[in-house]
Amino acid sequence: MGLSDHPLAQIVQGGEPWMTTRLDFLVNWSRANSLWPMPFGTACCAIEFMAAAANKYDLARFGMERMSFSPRQADVLICAGRVPFKLAPVLRRIWQQMMQPKWAISMGACASTGGMFDNYAVVQGIDTIMPVDVYVPGCPPRPEGLIYGIMLLQKKIMAERASDTSLRQEMEPDPKSQLYIPPTAIDELSEPFGNSVHQTRSGL
Amino acid sequence: MNSSAPFTPVIAGSAAAGSAPATPKNVSHRGGPESPTAGALRERFGAAVKRVDVVWGETTIVVDSRRLSEVVSWLHDEPAQRYDFLVDVTAVEFRDAELPIEVVWHVRSLPFRRFLRLKVLIEKGQKLEVPSVWATYKSADWLERECYDMFGITFAGHPDLRRILMWEQYREGYPLRKDFPLRGRFSRSEQLRQALSANPEARYSMDELSIAQAFEDLPDEMRRRLSEGEKTGE
Question: Considering only alpha carbons, which residue of chain A is nearest residue B167?
Answer without folding.
Answer: A86
